[in-house]
Amino acid sequence: MTDVEIWVEGEPVPKGRPRYGKGNHMYTPPKTRDAENRIRKAWQEEGGREISGPVSISCWFFLETPKSWSKARKALAEIGEILPEKVPDIDNLVKTVLDALNGLAFTDDKEVVRMFVSKQYREKPGTLVRVRAL
Asked: In what order do the strands lie in the sheet with 112-122?
């Protein structure tokens, strides 16, 4: 079994809707493109290679704990007692990761047959991704 785990620093970014430019040319919003590039770079720096066949992917999205919260409330968020019931939507966060790793960690995201996803607060925002060959 092959596992590759990466950490991507910074606030997780949901997949932005494609935009239209001049002449009805579609493009990915810059914020999404930058997030996908950070994920790809983390994969390559970790020495990740393409895994062929069915894969499982786990994604932990850590959103920055609001600075306005009290220390007590932040502490509860750090241990998972307070969870983010706000945007960004978890499915859009996953889409950013899948699109970034498409053709890099796996040939196509259709090979992803199992998925675990979590969204929680943390003082230091980021995304933890684990891809496992099945």
From this structure: 3-9, 126-133, 55-64, 112-122
What the chain holds in terms of domains, given with CATH numbers, is: 3-133 (3.30.1330.70)
> Per-residue pLDDT tens for 74-125?
999 999 999 999 999 999 999 999 999 999 999 999 999 999 999 999 999 9
Q: Contact, 106 vs 131, CB < 8 A?
A: yes
Tell me, what amino acid is at 49? R
Q: Enumerate the β-bridge partners of residue 132.
A: 3, 56
Q: Which amino acid is at 44?
A: Q
Residues 6+ apart with CB under 8 A from 8: 38, 39, 42, 126, 127, 128, 129
Q: Strand, helix or coil at 88?
A: coil
**What is the per-residue pLDDT for 26?**
77
